[in-house]
Automatic annotation (TrEMBL):
Pfam families per the UniProt record, alphabetical: TPR_PEP5_VPS11 (PF23356)
GO molecular function per UniProt: protein-macromolecule adaptor activity; zinc ion binding
Protein topology in the membrane: Peripheral membrane protein
Protein name: Uncharacterized protein
């Protein structure tokens, strides 16, 4: 993009000068000048000499000045292209996407706005975007943003909690399962906290399935017994654990299991007593 400065008044013979940005696919400058005689450069300026002796100078603006002009015209898509093609443009990209997101959000284009907000992760506080999309009619867009946030290392348990709540409200059970498998593998998420979130959302069945898959046996049994009432399943689960470990679970959950399934629990106790040297004490 170029600025124009003319040394004196125009004559009656005029020519149109247009400067194109081929990569960005936009016109950077256009104006009428006296009939041209010669074009030449001096340092970073383009000099235009007219037949009547008029000398004009075209000087390229710096990137910040170009972006300011584009912002005033709401040409944010052009600003993105310009920044990407400029040597120092990378440092401006996230702020451009933030401005573009705000502009689209203000126009009610929430889908495209959240696409821009995704590009601001690492610069814009997630809470800014979350507050904008917490409205019930925009939860799907909020999920898109939070999913992108979880693809980075900048999410917290708070963000995970919100995403799971959104999935639950939208009844996206398959997405919940896929998401849980993903966070279980990332190695940085406190799965105990995730299980508590799921239990608060009445999703103990999904949580217990994941706990079994992750071999988090105590969490799995807690949900089977306390939330789902699947005492017989829990007894079978305990019976497959090593004796010492099974004894610990019997000491913790034995009274609840005995009240619900006395015969099965008695059989399990007898088996453990015969195979475990230690004493089993049922929790009161």
């Amino acid at each position: 993009m170029l600025s124009y400065r003319r040394s004196n008044d125009a004559t009656e013979f005029m020519s149109m000068v247009t400067v194109y940005n081929v990569k960005g696919q936009y016109i950077g400058f256009s104006c009428s000048l006296p009939s041209l005689c010669r074009l030449f450069t001096v340092d970073q300026s383009l000099m235009i000499l007219s037949k009547d002796g008029t000398l004009s100078e075209l000087t390229e603006k710096n990137l910040s000045a170009k972006l300011d002009i584009l912002f005033k015209k709401n040409l944010f898509d052009v600003a993105v292209i310009l920044a990407k093609s400029s040597r120092d443009g990378a440092e401006h990209l996230k702020s451009i996407h933030a401005k573009y997101g705000d502009y689209l959000y203000g126009k009610g284009d929430f889908n495209n706005a959240v696409s821009e907000y995704k590009e601001t992760i690492g610069m814009l506080e997630p809470s800014y975007v979350i507050k904008r999309y917490l409205d019930g009619s925009r939860l799907r867009q909020l999920c898109v943003y939070l999913e992108a946030l979880h693809d980075t290392d900048r999410y917290t348990l708070y963000h995970t909690n919100i995403l799971l709540n959104c999935y639950a409200q939208l009844e996206e059970r398959k997405k919940i399962q896929n998401f849980l498998e993903k966070v279980a593998l990332d190695g940085r998420t406190d799965m105990s906290s995730i299980f508590e979130v799921l239990r608060s959302l009445k999703m103990s069945e999904d949580a217990s399935f994941l706990a079994v898959k992750l071999s988090m046996h105590d969490h799995a049994l807690s949900m089977m017994i306390e939330d789902l009432g699947r005492h017989a399943t829990a007894i079978k689960y305990i019976s497959k654990r090593p004796p010492d470990e099974a004894c610990q679970y019997i000491e913790k959950y034995g009274r609840l299991l005995f009240e619900a399934c006395p015969d099965e629990t008695t059989d399990l106790l007898q088996h453990l007593i015969e195979n475990s040297p230690g004493r089993i004490t049922l929790a009161r």
